[in-house]
Task: structure prediction
Amino acid sequence: MFAEQNAERNRTKQNDSERNKTTSRRDAMAEIDLKQEVRFNPYRVRRFGLSSTQEAKALLYLERQGDTPRKFLARLFDLRLVERLVALGLVVHRGDTYGITESGRAVLQGCLGDDHGRGVA
Result:
């Protein structure tokens, strides 16, 4: 009986360890994506209604990653910044995740402009 319990405990620890490795890999990939940085023009960002290039970076991150859990976003961005994007209608908050809206994509395309081959007509 004790041997079975120990075996089950070890399996659970291994599963937890694998889950943590997957989570840390995802965090590392997210940081790499942001470090292969797109440089936003602050004047263009303001022209499209954002107050900082960090907001544009958050939109870019959400577009690249898709729906993202709150805790991952909190590691990369100030959540007040993300909540401001929600208030502007550029990001949607679904349960515990955040995702970019169509209007958020349009603003992001405008912020990126022709420099990245994604200009607005």
Observations:
- The longest strand covers residues 91-94.
- The CA atoms of residues 34 and 61 lie 7 Å apart.
- The two ends are 70 Å apart (CA to CA).
- The chain has six helices and three strands.
